[in-house]
Description:
Elements: E1 15-19, H1 27-39, E2 43-46, H2 64-76, E3 82-85, H3 92-95, H4 101-106, E4 111-114, H5 119-129, E5 133-135, H6 142-145, H7 148-159, E6 166-168, E7 173-175, E8 178-187, H8 188-193, E9 207-214, H9 218-230, E10 239-246, H10 251-262, E11 269-270, E12 284-286, E13 289-293, E14 298-301
Parallel strand pairs: 1-2, 1-3, 3-4, 4-5, 8-9, 9-10, 10-11
Antiparallel strand pairs: 5-12, 6-14, 7-11, 8-13, 13-14
Helix pairs in contact: 9-10
Amino acid sequence: xxxxxxxxxxxxxxxxxxxxxxxxxxxxxxxxxxxxxxxxxxxxxxxxxxxxxxxxxxxxxxxxxxxxxxxxxxxxxxxxxxxxxxxxxxxxxxxxxxxxxxxxxxxxxxxxxxxxxxxxxxxxxxxxxxxxxxxxxxxxxxxxxxxxxxxxxxxxxxxxxxxxxxxxxxxxxxxxxxxxxxxxxxxxxxxxxxxxxxxxxxxxxxxxxxxxxxxxxxxxxxxxxxxxxxxxxxxxxxxxxxxxxxxxxxxxxxxxxxxxxxxxxxxxxxxxxxxxxxxxxxxxxxxxxxxxxxxxxxxxxxxxxxx
Length: 307
């Protein structure tokens, strides 16, 4: 893992595009999210298919081609300073191969924010654009529009990233120690299902892996971690930071899985960092050098996520 190019921070009045690369978005939640963005003195514009729905597959916000076109058009628009995903769900894997990466690379760097299913795009932005991205709450997500803390942490990252260089765990240390590396990761189930695809990262060597998930039982978490281990994807990882695991069963059972599957890596592992599918979710950058102190429960970025 190498450090990636940091986009510029946002300034008041910046134009930001809201896209839906995965699932459909309820209109009332979209409007609530747009109100939050306008309250930050941003100028949000909504891509044409954010409120769309596929004619036969109603878990998709429009066809794959339409969702890809929305993202590409927003990214290549020189007036847009950031692209924010309205929600996750499912569908990013279906559209990622339709994007014109040469055109998007030519458009230059800008801020990209999303989480969950958007993990697929975070990986692609790293491998195809070499760009730091923000794993943060969805603009129309319930955990965003109803959480002042999640809003403030994302706002601070976008406008004053030097003020949020240290993230702190609310949990315990599973494996003590300190490690340095470039941040990467996302939703565990998407990292596992993305293995071997054209835009996925080749592995976590030299990185600090940040993972979380939702609605997966302990045996499924075990299966995904085992898949990453068996493929060698975790070889050389510097440390592991665990986020939220909402709806994934009793936490003691999860802790046993993490200790069993990750403890043998011989690297620091720390839990409950409060990013992912949870209320008051933190925004975490991927592609920046950081130091993990598992004993203190801190992850400190070498420099702000955005320039």
